[in-house]
């Protein structure tokens, strides 16, 4: 599967559709070249590994008491450091990120995840290295 976003539920955006088409085309091109016996050299790429899902701050009744801070909104995949604004209470109090490492939040304030009690997902940036790749079929 391929998921490209973020975008609101039920909305078809031309720019996101174009990105999805390009990703699928690259995938199909890779499969064709692999099947033709092309050898791919070793490579290293950066990826984001899911660490944990983070819920909104809630009161003892389970009600949300803070929203995503405006400085975090629409900042998917951008570094979030200790002390950066994370949530904003309805009283205007800033709740900062408290962590011992830089993380990369994604799915920030996605409507589809409210019912799942998920304000965003914390990810870490890691590097993956692949050895050369070639089809063994002649």
TrEMBL record:
UniProt-recorded Gene Ontology molecular function terms: hydrolase activity, acting on carbon-nitrogen (but not peptide) bonds, in linear amides
Superkingdom of the source species: Eukaryota
GO CC annotations on file: cytosol
Cross-referenced Gene3D superfamilies: Zn peptidases
Signal sequence region: none
Domain AstE/AspA barrel-sandwich hybrid: 44-125
Entries under Pfam families matching the protein: AstE_AspA_hybrid
Matching InterPro entries: AspA/AstE_fam, Aste_AspA_hybrid_dom
Record-given protein name: ACY2 Aspartoacylase
Gene that specifies this protein: Aspa_0
